[in-house]
Write a structure and sequence with these properties.
313 residues, mainly alpha, Serine Threonine Protein Phosphatase 5, Tetratricopeptide repeat, 3 domains, 13 helices, rod-shaped
Length: 313
Amino acid sequence: MTTPGATVSKTFAKALFNWCTTSLPASAAAAGTVDVGATSGCAANDVLIARHRVKMDMRMGWNLDSTEDATFNWIRPIPVRHGESVLRRTYSKTASNLSRSSAGLLDEARIIGGTTLNMRAIKRRFVFRAGVVVLILIFLWAMAIGPEPPARVTISPGELVRAVAIQRESLIDLYLIEHVDPNGRDAQGRTPLLIATSQQDWKTARRLVDAGALVDVADKNGFTPLMAGAMNGNLAMFQLLLARSTNLHAEARCADGRDLLGFALDGANPEIIRSVVERLPPMPQWKTSTRRALTAALQAGNKEQIRSLLRKH
């Protein structure tokens, strides 16, 4: 298949060839270099034709496909010189004026290998830096959304008083664990221990005593936890409170006129009554509670308690 470039080249070559064959003999004859005749004209034409063919062969060796795009046509065979191998001519279709010894080609494998190593090093550095940045971002993100450290909440003693009054064991446990002051008071002056003993909540009363609750603190009416224990007749609690008492006044009266002995007589526990009588101070005259105690001892025939009451007056 003939390309348009090849057709143009061949047409131009034929026109040049015809011009040479027609004009050169006449000019040679006019100059006197050759004789005018068929023989001399043919000889000159033969010389010109031979030179023209050599030039055209060298020119057509490039075999340009078009006048616009000068691309190599690999279909056309490339002539090989004597003593030259085909593999040596793979670089170009034409012979180079430069010697191969003076121009050294770089090793393609070396170039690719060096570039690959550089790219790997760059990638490793990039991955390391990106990993450090990601770790920093994760740390900052965790600090931003993480739970805040629990703030220390101050619990007032009044909170413990209310918890004991409503008998909320969970709150009582929490407040005692937080070491809330067990000697707080409500509006009536009652301590948590007085409230617990008045409600006969002996378990909470014991925990409050162990937490450091004072057993001699009275409310606005003069009522103490020891009186509440005696009134309810709980000997174990009364003995516990009595052992922790540091400022016992057995003769002290409440706002209604009753004292510790009167509450013990209401509780009807003989051991509590005996303990209270033994701790009464000497009195110049008989009180309501001591008269009641003497009457009960006479009715029960308790001679020891009768003698104890007589010694106090």
